[in-house]
Design a protein that fits this description.
heterodimer, A: about 350 residues, mainly alpha, globular, B: about 500 residues, alpha/beta, six-stranded mixed sheet, 18 helices, 20 strands, disordered C terminus
């Protein structure tokens, strides 16, 4: 390997080592045999076809939510609203299924996806509009709006949308087969993953190789210069916030339709925030977001299984994620400082 | 001869290659008001900031009570009885006047209980200076003038022997300024030395005992008040015209109005433009003179379509090019050289080639290669199109923007301080390019602080003060720096002639 590639890759390699070190320390603290537990974690993430399918299932919403943060991030906006947009998409898509449960799949599924995307887009458009017109901070607004849809889902499944046949369980009715996203047979790898892949590639091409790529880049680099040459910052804020919202909305409906099979509480295991972190770790580059969300998806799936089958507490899955992000954020900075000191 | 409190002996201060203060010698005496007069960038503030301990002197010595001063920061300066009031205040807007005063009071007890009788002493100078200000009011609710008075009280509270005021009247209403002048005289009467940094002759006339004139970093004159006429003082402040080989632009027929400003008004929190009307013909160069901070920046951004207008319109060949609401986006057809081009003219994260092609890229067109030779033509160093604009030095960023804006023929040009930070050869090149554009029919609006250059290179000179166009003069060879300078600083022409 040439020294240059090694130099560029060293933060990544070092991040992994630091994470493994921290994870080992965690397992020792928990009183588990550290290396054995690590091996089990990897086994549960990629060890067999079932584990792989679980990893892919977790990767899908993380990928879409990461893209949802990356799109406004390209303009320098900090949107933490993927969680709320995910739930908004889930509500909008579910509404259509509850309205027209008998429509044939070729009509219902595309319409359900479109509804979910529009629901998420509207939920991203609102903070975008506030930012563009009134200069209200988009980070605060998206953060606060998250609570609204999460609680709205609870209100709906406890109230008007509760399935009478569910014997008190707060959830809508089971989605009919014609409203379930197609999946690879015998696995949980569904159409949502394909949508995420396509979106990542399309965004990569749009932001890096299209004729319009530089509009966003100019505004992100120097808003005043962009406005001097006729670019409207407000317009792009609204567009990018809406597009990001639509992607998170797709994550929401695909969780409901393909994984849970019904709208209920806790359709998201904090995917919005995880996606946000993935996006910032990847510097909003769609092609980097792909492998990073796969890694994080594997970690989530692996540690989920770990807490079920090994004797580790449930919280360790979240702790492991936290350790990964802490390592990934700290290591490049420390490395740069160390190189500077040299 | 009165005893001198502070003495500057051959003090020099450099910032990199820039000499801000050059071999300055002067003294400040107890009980006098010393006015330090000069244009922007003359080195007045830098000189006083050295005394206040903000910058060390590069060369020379500052003596306090006849011994070398050991002042390494504002805290030291305050211990030595030197206080300074800055142009930008250092009050905490969310706290009350009383709390702000307590924060900088040496005698403030470690503990603080509300309305403690012992802390009422802190209000003595406030009661004297501004009895109308209620000490329990929150600072953010005070007017700018009132804030200035509170700031002054802070300085008086340290029992200052020397009070330095940096452009104190620039934010005051005339009535407030008059009251401040009276107070300054009262202070001097008590034996406190006051150093008054200003570019306003009105301040000098109202209360100075001695007048120091600075120009381009050097002290050019020290005189008692009354020893010089105001016209002589202005001449000293502006300097004699420097001989530049600036070739005047070709003659033109002032017939076709090309760039027309109709009652242009715009508003920012700190500045407003009020009804500026100006018509520039094809081939005409109109220079805008004014002391920095009198609305030139806002005028430039309004004409460039960055700042929305609150009233009026801007027409290029009869077509409006102004931004009327914050929600519309206008691509300026002007060749526009903004001030501080690193902040306002380039995208630092993009390459030189892309920065040259910004107009195309912003419209969703692909960058073409036709811009490459501009880098060589305008001497941008290094002429590497793949280099990021953020890596260039200040002067080269300026040249990059000029290459983009003047590299092709324009209908009209808006140039703000286009030669700022450039060396002589580059300045000649910029003027040559600008005048060539005018010769081919471009209307040029040229904002500059360099009166010599404006007088040598423009057909008419517009003078701006406090957001208004106060004069529009034909530059027919009879205009003097003094006359324009007087208009810039707010004297009437008769006062200047007196």
């Amino acid at each position: 390997m040439s020294p240059r590639i090694l130099g560029a890759a060293s933060p990544f390699i070092l991040t992994i080592f630091v994470f493994l070190f921290l994870a080992v320390a965690l397992f020792i603290g928990l009183g588990q045999p550290p290396f054995q537990t690590l091996a089990v974690l990897v086994q549960f993430a990629v060890g067999d076809s079932y584990s792989l399918s679980q990893t892919m299932a977790k990767t899908t919403p993380i990928l879409l939510c990461a893209l949802a943060a990356a799109v406004p991030g390209r303009l320098g906006l900090i949107s933490v609203g993927a969680e709320g947009q995910l739930h908004a998409g889930a509500i909008a898509g579910t509404a259509l299924v509850l309205l027209a449960p008998v429509w044939p799949a070729p009509v219902l599924i595309p319409l359900m996806l479109i509804f979910a995307a529009i629901g998420g887009a509207i939920y991203g458009y609102i903070p975008g509009l506030l930012r563009a017109r009134l200069d209200v901070n988009e980070t605060i607004v998206t953060l606060l709006m998250n609570y609204v849809t999460v609680l709205l889902v609870a209100a709906l499944v406890f109230g008007p949308w509760r399935d009478p046949a569910s014997q008190g369980w707060p959830a809508t009715m089971q989605f009919p087969p014609n409203a379930v996203l197609p999946a690879l047979p015998g696995s949980r790898i569904h159409l949502g993953l394909l949508l995420g892949l396509v979106a990542a590639l399309a965004l990569h091409i749009y932001f890096n190789h299209s004729r319009w790529a530089d509009k966003v880049r100019i505004l992100a680099g120097n808003r005043k210069v962009g406005e001097t040459f006729g670019l409207s910052f407000g317009f792009w804020v609204m567009v990018l916030m809406s597009v990001g919202g639509a992607l998170a909305g797709l994550a929401g409906i695909s969780e409901v339709s393909a994984i849970q099979g019904r709208l209920q509480q806790s359709i998201s295991l904090g995917y919005g925030l995880t996606g946000f972190l993935v996006s910032w770790l990847s510097r909003h580059q769609p092609l980097i977001i792909l492998p990073v969300s796969l890694c994080v998806g594997g970690l989530v799936a692996g540690s989920d299984a770990l807490q079920m089958f090994a004797k580790v507490p449930a919280a360790s899955a979240v702790i492991l994620q936290g350790l990964l992000f802490a390592a990934a954020l700290a290591v490049p900075g420390l490395l740069a400082r160390w190189r500077k000191a040299q | 001869m009165p005893e001198s409190l502070v003495q500057f002996a051959g003090v020099t201060r450099r910032f990199g290659d820039l000499i801000a203060v050059n071999n300055a010698s002067l003294d400040i005496r107890a009980g006098e008001v010393l006015a330090i007069l000069g244009e922007n960038g003359a080195g007045k503030s830098t000189l006083m900031k050295m005394l206040y301990g903000l910058y060390p002197a590069s060369e020379g010595q500052i003596l306090l009570d006849g011994a070398p001063a050991k002042i390494s920061g504002p805290a030291d300066a305050m211990r030595n009885g030197i206080g300074m009031v800055f142009q930008h205040f250092s009050l905490l807007p969310a706290l009350s006047v009383r709390d702000n005063l307590l924060l900088s009071w040496p005698k403030t007890p470690f503990w603080k209980s509300h309305r403690n009788a012992r802390t009422d002493d802190v209000l003595t100078s406030l009661a004297e200076l501004a009895p109308q200000i209620d000490p329990e009011r929150i600072v953010s609710s005070l007017s700018v003038g009132e804030q200035q008075l509170v700031e002054l009280c802070k300085v008086l509270n340290i029992n200052a022997r020397l009070v330095i005021l940096d452009e104190p009247t620039s934010v005051l209403t005339p009535a407030e300024a008059t009251r401040l002048h009276g107070f300054i005289k009262q202070l001097a009467g008590r034996g406190v030395a006051v150093a008054l940094i200003t570019h306003k002759l009105a301040d000098v006339e109202a209360c100075a005992d001695r007048i120091v004139v600075m120009r381009r970093g050097s002290v050019v004159d020290i005189a008692e008040r009354g020893a010089r006429s105001m016209a002589e003082t202005v001449a000293l402040m502006m300097g004699q015209s420097v001989d530049r080989t600036l070739r005047p632009p070709p003659a033109f027929g002032r017939t076709v109005p090309r760039l027309v400003l109709e009652n242009v008004s715009a508003q920012r929190p700190d500045m407003s433009l009020q009804g500026i009307s100006l018509s520039i013909a094809a081939g005409e160069i109109v220079g805008v003179a004014g002391v920095a901070g009198n609305g030139q920046a806002l005028l430039a951004e309004a004409v460039a379509g960055v700042e929305p207008l609150t009233a009026g319109d801007i027409l290029l060949d009869g077509v409006s090019i102004a931004r009327h609401t914050p929600f519309e986006a206008v691509s300026t057809p002007l060749g526009y050289i903004p001030e501080q081009p690193r902040d306002n003219g380039v995208v630092a994260t993009m390459s030189l080639a892309r920065n040259l092609a910004l107009r195309d890229l912003a419209q969703g067109k692909r960058a073409t290669g036709r811009h490459a030779n501009l880098l060589e033509r305008f001497n941008v160093n290094p002429p590497d199109p793949a280099k990021l604009a953020g890596t260039l030095s200040g002067g080269n960023v300026q040249k990059l923007v000029i290459a983009r804006e003047l590299g092709i023929q324009r209908d009209a040009i808006l140039a703000c301080y286009p030669t700022m930070g450039l060396d002589l050869a580059a300045i000649e090149m910029v003027y040559a390019a600008m005048f060539a554009q005018a010769a081919s029919g471009a209307a040029v609006l040229w904002i500059s602080e360099d009166l010599d250059d404006l007088l040598a290179g423009s057909h008419r000179i517009a003078v701006m003060r406090e957001g208004r166009l106060v004069a529009l003069l034909d530059n027919d060879g009879t205009l003097s720096r003094e006359a324009v300078g007087a208009l810039m600083t707010g004297m009437t022409e008769t006062e200047a002639a007196a």
